[in-house]
Design goal:
By secondary structure, the chain is an all-alpha fold. Helix content is 79%, strand content 0%. It has one domain.
Length: 131
């Protein structure tokens, strides 16, 4: 939410005619991702501790389930970043030859989606193959 709020602030300042150069998207993106990934990790570790039966699962099952859940929930948590950058990018007044905020960070967002999508797809394929 911090990331979306700061992008919304930038959007509103641009609408009012004020330059919103004081919002550092790199710094805000790093803060958002650090907080979200840390909270997601704690949440998933708590879920595994509470609901996984230690007598029925091997140790590698915990790792596999953690990676699968992290990839699945991580994709959902990337949506606010993508939407926020899209809103700001579409509202910017860009000179010819300049790149919008979304264009600047689209490769980072795409790499984040790919780094979460492919492990989830691979683990799903391995589970289907094993059963």
């Amino acid at each position: 939410m911090l990331f979306v709020r700061s992008l919304w602030l930038k959007y509103r300042l641009n609408k009012m005619g004020n330059p919103a150069n004081n919002v550092n998207v790199d710094h805000t993106l790093a803060e958002y991702l650090t907080i979200i990934w840390f909270c997601l990790t704690l949440y998933l570790l708590n879920i595994l501790r509470k609901f996984a039966n230690r007598n029925q699962f091997n140790w590698h099952t915990y790792i596999t389930v953690f990676i699968a859940y992290f990839a699945s929930f991580g994709i959902i948590l990337l949506i606010p970043i993508d939407v926020g950058l899209t809103i700001v990018g579409r509202s910017e007044n860009v000179e010819i030859g300049e790149r919008t905020t979304y264009e600047k960070y689209s490769t980072k967002i795409e790499n984040m989606y790919n780094s979460l999508y492919w492990p989830g797809l691979t683990l799903q394929s391995l589970f289907d193959f094993a059963s």
